[in-house]
Write a structure and sequence with these properties.
The chain is mainly beta and about 70 residues long. It contains no helices and three strands. It has one domain. A hairpin with a 6-residue loop joins strand 1 and strand 2. It is globular and about 40 Å long.
């Protein structure tokens, strides 16, 4: 979940996911109070922050124990 109340898209820090062939990239800009759900396995990465700002996020990791 993105925790910065103010974040300009040109600052970077977007979450990105790609398909298995790296042909399609989906991006989610940081918007306060929104979350991004990624179900593994899934190729994903975060764009660098292109300014003097800190992107604040809260992350949860879930591992099913069998």
């Amino acid at each position: 979940m993105f925790l910065n109340k103010i974040w300009e898209p040109h600052w970077g820090g977007h979450n990105c996911t790609v398909d298995d062939n790296w042909e399609t990239v989906h991006t989610q800009k940081p918007v306060y109070g929104t979350g991004v759900y990624i179900e593994a396995p899934c190729q994903h990465f975060t764009l660098p922050v292109f300014s003097d700002h800190n992107r604040r996020t809260l992350q949860f990791f879930y591992d099913e124990i069998t």
